Amino acid sequence: MGQCCSKGVSGDNGGSVVAVGDGNSAVSTNNRPKPPPSPVRQSVGNGMSYTNNSTPAHSFTASPFQSPYPAGIAPSPSPVGTPRRKFKWPFPPPSPAKPILSAIFKRQGGTSVKPKEGPIPEDEGGEGEGQLDKSFGYPKNLTSKYELGKEVGRGHFGHTCWAKGKKGELKNQPVAVKIISKAKAVDGMNVVWQMTTAISIEDVRREVKILKALSGHQNLVKFYDAFEDANNVYIVMELCEGGELLDRILSRGGRYTEEDAKSIVVQILNVVAFCHLQGVVHRDLKPENFLFAKKDEDSPMKVIDFGLSDFIKPDQRLNDIVGSAYYVAPEVLHRSYSIEADMWSIGVITYILLCGSRPFWARTESGIFRSVLRADPNFEDSPWPAVSAEARDFVKRLLNKDHRKRMTASQALTHPWLRTENPFIPLDILIFKLVKTYIRTSPLKRAALKALSKALTEEELIYLKAQFNLLEPKAGSVSLDNFRMVGGLTALMKQTTDAMREARVLDIINLLEPLSYKQMEFEEFCAAAISTYQLEALENWEHIASAAFNCFEQEGNRVISVEELAQEMNLGPTAYAFLKDWIRPSDRKLSFLGYTKFLHGVTMRSSSTRHHR
């Protein structure tokens, strides 16, 4: 599990990628960050990483976790130098750090913004530890099924041990057991984890639920079982022996070649696209949370650590602040986000892979958050001039501060930079959301979108063709049956897991009912499935918009009053003043400005924002 609600928010980044400050500010006067230092491995990462590498006996001390093993099992030693977990006092407002760190500390069971310097007495608890039910209902017979061995990894909320199956399908097979203490865990003079709030208990419960619900993807760590006793929760998973992605980056001198980076990014996108389709947002993607199955150079990579992950409905917005400081998306800090936050994190990872340094850097939590919110990544200094234009465009389209303009994981797999990898293009839940909106919109808006779709180039159509074909059209068209029934199963059910049912992703099918009596050919499908915001992020957006408006002038533009336009957009009389600028005085039709604004519509605060935690 992790922090920013934990992972990586502390001054040492709380993990394996640690800033080495030189006293210089991370943000220059031209709003562009100075080149940050390359990622450096300091001590032991807080990602729940684990390898099968042995550690010299002299480098161990007693584990800081109370009773980490069942009776009869010797405690594992813990590596010296495990990073201390301490949040620094934030800068004064308007820094976003103070409310963010306050939320983080509260989530961990604290009662103030600034943590105490010494260990917290055992009888203290954010919500009355003695009154909390820490029983998870998991089996209590861990030692009858697994033989625990040495510690192989350490995270903020627990540590991981090597183990071996005693019976059944996993007999004599090595596995990893993640051990999460039910009590306060102290490292030196600092409390690094305490299951003293309902939130922290629910985090553990949800992690197991997500791991159990997600299954069947080659880039997803396998979940085997969960156990508990009076002191700990034990999560049994696949043992990944190849080490962290971060270690591979460092072993290559801090960066990957473009060709090698493509292979890594495709694997990340594939598994994230799978999670998003299932209605799961990871919320803590970073190099430490990707492990290689084996030490081989071409070994597949696995995403781990779903401690901060959550189920999410297609139109839902989350508001709890979680993640790792260097990888957290701007909208997370603004407390309104969805699966696009994961795409930002992938953009940061790709940036690091290609140049060996972070796009947003500072010596403090406050500075990191400021940089994420205000600074622009540096694409001018070495080695970026030698990096291909396609790679730079790929990263820029993921590190767009407007989450509506970011590519989805499925879209990113069709980007020109990755096309030579011939990746499989998975079904995109965004298609269902956009089509749902399209079939409920006005005839004028549909005409505007149809004109826009006719202006798309072959480059932009590749993704749409892939999605259209995944729906298995009949005679060149799709209907509700194609969204609902493909080869005897729904297009979504073909790839469903328990996670999709938990997140109620399939409910979106019911919202496509207007398609019951309609056939949608590819041309109209393109109009229904395009995102104006994403097109606006393209370098050739002005050309596309101009061509689309010319088409709209011929086929869809008509005389419209300010009052009618306001009604089209569900706006009141207060909007009349600015809507006048959208209509040409000469013929009372939409102007080019009005057309592009009309395509975007008006952004309203979602009523589905979830207020929890």
UniProtKB/TrEMBL annotation:
Question: So where does ATP get bound?
Answer: 178
What are the boundaries of the region Disordered?
A: 1-83, 109-136
The record's section on SMART domains has: S_TKc (SM00220)
Catalysed reactions listed for this entry: L-threonyl-[protein] + ATP = O-phospho-L-threonyl-[protein] + ADP + H(+); L-seryl-[protein] + ATP = O-phospho-L-seryl-[protein] + ADP + H(+)
Answer whether the UniProt record assigns the keyword Repeat to this protein. yes
UniProt cross-references to Pfam families, sorted A to Z: Pkinase (PF00069)
EC class of the enzyme, as a word = transferase
The terms under GO molecular function for this entry are: ATP binding; protein serine/threonine kinase activity
Q: Which UniProt keywords apply?
A: ATP-binding, Kinase, Nucleotide-binding, Repeat, Serine/threonine-protein kinase, Transferase
Q: Which superkingdom does the taxonomy of this entry point to?
A: Eukaryota
EC number(s) per UniProt? 2.7.11.1
- Listed InterPro entries: CDPK_Ser/Thr_kinases, EF-hand-dom_pair, Kinase-like_dom_sf, Prot_kinase_dom, Protein_kinase_ATP_BS, Ser/Thr_kinase_AS
Check the record and name the SUPFAM superfamilies matching this protein: EF-hand, Protein kinase-like (PK-like)
What the entry lists under Gene3D superfamilies is as follows: EF-hand, Phosphorylase Kinase, domain 1, Transferase(Phosphotransferase) domain 1
Q: Where is the Protein kinase domain?
A: 146-418
Q: Which residues form the signal peptide?
A: none
Instruction: Establish whether keyword Repeat is in the entry.
Output: yes
Q: Where is the composition biased (Polar residues)?
A: 40-66
Q: Which family does it belong to?
A: Belongs to the protein kinase superfamily. CAMK Ser/Thr protein kinase family. CaMK subfamily.
Q: What is this protein called?
A: non-specific serine/threonine protein kinase
Give the species: Solanum commersonii
Q: What is the lineage of its organism?
A: Eukaryota, Viridiplantae, Streptophyta, Embryophyta, Tracheophyta
